[in-house]
Amino acid sequence: xxxxxxxxxxxxxxxxxxxxxxxxxxxxxxxxxxxxxxxxxxxxxxxxxxxxxxxxxxxxxxxxxxxxxxxxxxxxxxxxxxxxxxxxxxxxxxxxxxxxxxxxxxxxxxxxxxxxxxxxxxxxxxxxxxxxxxxxxxxxxxxxxxxxxxxxxxxxxxxxxxxxxxxxxxxxxxxxxxxxxxxxxxxxxxxxxxxxxxxxxxxxxxxxxxxxxxxxxxxxxxxxxxxxxxxxxxxxxxxxxxxxxxxxxxxxxxxxxxxxxxxxxxxxxxxxxxxxxxxxxxxxxxxxxxxxxxxxxxxxxxxxxxxxxxxxxxxxxxxxxxxxxxxxxxxxxxxxxxxxxxxxxxxxxxx
Length: 351
Ligand SMILES: *[C@@H]1O[C@H](CO)[C@@H](O)[C@H](O)[C@H]1NC(C)=O
Ligand SMILES: *[C@@H]1O[C@H](CO)[C@@H](O)[C@H](O)[C@H]1NC(C)=O
Ligand SMILES: *[C@@H]1O[C@H](CO)[C@@H](O)[C@H](O)[C@H]1NC(C)=O
Ligand SMILES: *[C@@H]1O[C@H](CO)[C@@H](O)[C@H](O)[C@H]1NC(C)=O
Ligand SMILES: *[C@@H]1O[C@H](CO)[C@@H](O)[C@H](O)[C@H]1NC(C)=O
Ligand SMILES: *[C@@H]1O[C@H](CO)[C@@H](O)[C@H](O)[C@H]1NC(C)=O
Ligand SMILES: *[C@@H]1O[C@H](CO)[C@@H](O)[C@H](O)[C@H]1NC(C)=O
What we know:
CATH class of the largest domain: Alpha Beta
Structural class: alpha/beta
CATH topology of the largest domain: Rossmann fold
Shape: globular
Helix content: 40-55%
Radius of gyration: 23 Å
Largest sheet: 5 strands, parallel
Order of helices and strands: HHHHHEHEHEHHEHHHEHHH
CATH architecture of the largest domain: 3-Layer(aba) Sandwich
Distance between the termini: 26 Å
Number of strands: 5
Bound molecules: 2-acetamido-2-deoxy-beta-D-glucopyranose
Number of domains: 2
Strand order of the largest sheet: 2-3-1-4-5
Strand content: 5-15%
Number of helices: 15
């Protein structure tokens, strides 16, 4: 998060630091002067003339009227490194109309199955200016090879991808949900390069308690074959009754290989964080979202530079309460994990 704040769109502090070794006060004054000069320049030349300067955006006068200040401010900011992260898509399939000059921030939610990313994404999509297009790469053909992946991403970030989550004209942040095992890690080198070139921001969403995740994975895969809810398989539910039905199944966990499995999962997460370290990113944990939802969602909205909104979801959590009630062979599992560094996973970390 620290990193995200440092990169904040109007963060003059960073500008100052980047400026060199001169005294911060002097630089701060300098920034002030530049801003003032920009302001005066705008006043003198009038908005319409400013637009003609070739700095960043070539455009018509139409939207300047509606969004005067922001556009001009961005032009003043055009040499800031932050500018790299903002883009103005020109969709092939429709016109952005009055929002043509609203910058759009491309993002990707990078996560693992059963880590709360479905819930998180529905909350993001409850924001009028955010459009997250779901797990696009769950379809194998789209991740056959890296050129297919990049082509798909281009379409998404150019606002030309259509599904129920698309909001089009006035989207200020557009993205997708992407599981690490959906071609992301296999093609990490090219994808990191693409992200950095196009200024895609990564939102990592992981679960601290990987044992709980494992239970959720096993229960979900069990439900795929048994379809507990009147013969329909559901990965996410909208009522506590449905949640109870799904949580009634207690998986048996192979205690022999549990430690190894948890280690492997941790390694995957570490590797993902390392590979995308050069990309603008934020790391979220499901547990923090549960316990501190308002603040975490605020951080995310700041990270995406979208206006603050209360975000909502109708989804209901499936597994709650102590872990001991959720696993068939709890005693066995407990005695094995107690001797490992994963003992912490045994303790309930939220209600
Ligand atoms: C921005 O950068 C361009 C070229 O890199 C330079 O010509 C211009 O003077 C810079 N503008 C400001 C306001 O620093
Ligand atoms: C990638 O896959 C698509 C179809 O899945 C295929 O048409 C294309 O030729 C492939 N590209 C490369 C470089 O292999
Ligand atoms: C958000 O969407 C609303 C409604 O479409 C639009 O008026 C507004 O300009 C958008 N805000 C941003 C920052 O794009
Ligand atoms: C499942 O069946 C029960 C009883 O037959 C009914 O009350 C319930 O609404 C059904 N649920 C769904 C999701 O169809
Ligand atoms: C548990 O895992 C071990 C090691 O991978 C394997 O040999 C064993 O067959 C597994 N047991 C069950 C019941 O799947
Ligand atoms: C990412 O880079 C920063 C600074 O270069 C470093 O301090 C941090 O440990 C790195 N994180 C990972 C997960 O590699
Ligand atoms: C968000 O919700 C809280 C409580 O639910 C409310 O107090 C606050 O005014 C809301 N804020 C906005 C911006 O709607």
